[in-house]
Amino acid sequence: MRAGGRYTMVAFAALSLACGDIASPRRDDFYEWRLFEPSPTGTGMDTISFHWPSERLPVRIWVESTDPLPADVARAIPIWRDAFLYGEYDATVVSDSSTADVIVTSGLPPGAQPLVTRLRSAMATQCAGATDVDVSDDHTQLRLPIRIFIHSLAAPGDPGLDDCLALTTVHELGHSLGIFQHSPNPSDIMYFDPAVPLPSERDVTTAEVLYHVPSTVEVVRP
Questions:
Q1: Domain extents for the chain?
Q2: Count of beta carbons in the 10 Å neighbourhood of residue 162
Q3: Digits of tens for pLDDT over the chain (222 positions)?
Q4: How do strand 5-13 and strand 127-135 relate by DSSP bridges?
Q5: Helix %, strand %, coil % for the chain, to 5?
């Protein structure tokens, strides 16, 4: 966290989803997506929930040119876009990082700084990922850009590496669209150590539900 709170969603992969005029999906098989942080007033906990507002779609994503990042992000965008029933989410790749809402790079974020909240995961063999979300001290603003990190832990060409990088990219993009928590179920792409290549029905339901719950933070660009 810099001036405010930067929350880092970390996932390590072993191999090996608001429309005010549309009714919320009637679903009950979803997991917790929100962050819970101590209130800056010292009275209880604040619930932080976020989804991209319709006026900011498509979300602008800048991707580092290191292979296979561009191809993996290009594949992950329609996977999440197509998970929604009413076009609640969309994204596009842009060439100018200064205008991006989400920045995707190789490697991992710098070491934890004071006040950084990081969701820890177990180390895996082939690759790892992390997503930084910068929330203001008063928990009312989400500062852009969201940053995604995809890191290879194996040599190029090692068995399973490409699949690991691909599913980890899908997982981290899930964090960037508002799924701030990890699923407790290993059959979900948003499990902390994902092993499945695509969002499960429960992942999709969670994403659909969160996009019909009001955001508690306003998207801003410092």
A1: 5-220
A2: 19
A3: 333 467 777 777 655 433 333 444 445 789 999 999 999 888 899 999 999 999 999 999 999 999 999 999 999 999 999 999 999 999 999 999 999 999 999 987 776 443 334 444 444 578 989 999 999 999 999 999 999 999 998 888 888 899 999 999 999 999 999 999 999 999 999 999 898 999 999 999 999 999 999 999 999 987
A4: antiparallel
A5: 20, 25, 55
Closest CA to 152 of 140, 144, 164: 164
Q: Please tell me the distance from the alpha carbon of residue 218 to that of residue 173, in angstroms, as a whole number.
A: 19
The label of the residue with tokens 């809402």 reads: 101
DSSP-assigned states of every residue in 154-172: S-TT-TTHHHHHHHHHHHH
Q: How far is CA 149 from the centre of its chain?
A: 10
Q: Which CATH superfamily is 5-220 part of?
A: Collagenase (Catalytic Domain) (3.40.390.10)
pTM strictly above 0.85: yes
Task: Please give, one letter per residue, the 3-state secondary structure of 82-128.
Answer: CCCCCCCCCEEECCCHHHCCEEEEECCCCCCCCCCEEECCCCCCCEE
Distance, in Å, from the CA atom of 151 to the CA atom of 180, rounded to the nearest integer, reads 20
Which residues share a beta bridge with 151?
128
